[in-house]
Each structure stands twice: as C-alpha cells, then as structure tokens.
C-alpha cells in the first residue's frame, strides 16, 4: 500500500526518505484533494490484468510504454535523474504504474509544501495536469514503470515557474474548489 508524508528540508541525498521528525503522514484522502489518484494493481500480471484493461478503457489511455530507470538501462542516466528531480508540471496528466522496483513522486500541497509519495511494485498514480511535482529513485536505484497517455505521448516538462499555463490555472481553480 502506498505511503506518503511531508518532507523535511534536508538537501542531502534526494533518494533518502526525507521524513520529518516526528513523521507527518499524508492520507490517500489528502492526496485525492490535491487531485492525485492512487490505485493498486497486480503488477505480476500487467499484460493480462483485466483491471488495468478496464482502467485504460475508462480513462482512454490509448498509448503505453515501459521505461526502466537504472544506470545500466537508461541512456544518459545521470542527466535524466537530475531532470526528473527538477520541479515541473505537465499540460496533461502524468500516469505511472510501477512494475518492478521503487521510487518517489514528490508533489506540492496547497500551501506549497512537499509531500513525498513512496511508490513500489503494483502502485499506479495519476498526477493531474498543472500540479508541480518531481520524481526520484529511492535508495534501491531501480524502477521499471509503465507510462500511460491519452493519445500520442507528450514528454514536455515545464520547470517552475510555469504559472501562466492554462493547465496550471485550471489546477489552481480545482484546489480552490476543493478547499470550499
């Protein structure tokens, strides 16, 4: 089951858990209020899983690929890891399904504080368009993930500040409505 918490302010290794002391856990409901959707699936049978098939149909996830993030598998590994960890947003939802390994997605809450979401095998997450976020491996240094898209994939990340994009404005409107 996914676990999330508020991060400490340490600038040490990005792959460390960075839990505040005492730990400040974040619930699935708190993530939902930020527009983050979490699902748990059967990663051992992802190729034939009827739940994944139904999610893809219902959400119109027509495009999919699999990426492995490990120093021996990803070209320009060091550069990519730095890029993934830069705070950014996308104009479309970001959908990731962890098939093997583990890592962290960090998202900003409504008060601009970092929440770390620990992802492992079987976890699927959807980050809404316009949310500031970043990704890093954890101390295991390995993840194999499915990337899903509606239509053709768009890989463009817009580093912060990117507040003038319609996706960001729409996301901020969503947060304001959730707060009411």
From TrEMBL:
GO CC list: nucleus; plasma membrane
Major site of localization recorded for this protein: membrane
CDD domains given in the database record: cupin_ARD (cd02232)
Bilayer topology: Peripheral membrane protein
GO biological process: L-methionine salvage from methylthioadenosine
Cellular localisation: Cell membrane; Nucleus
Keyword annotations from UniProtKB, A to Z: Amino-acid biosynthesis, Cytoplasm, Dioxygenase, Iron, Metal-binding, Methionine biosynthesis, Nickel, Nucleus, Oxidoreductase
Presence of the UniProt keyword Metal-binding in the record: yes
A Pfam family of this chain: ARD
Highest taxon of source: Eukaryota
Entry EC number(s): 1.13.11.54
Protein name: acireductone dioxygenase (Fe(2+)-requiring)
Organism for this UniProt entry: Emberiza fucata
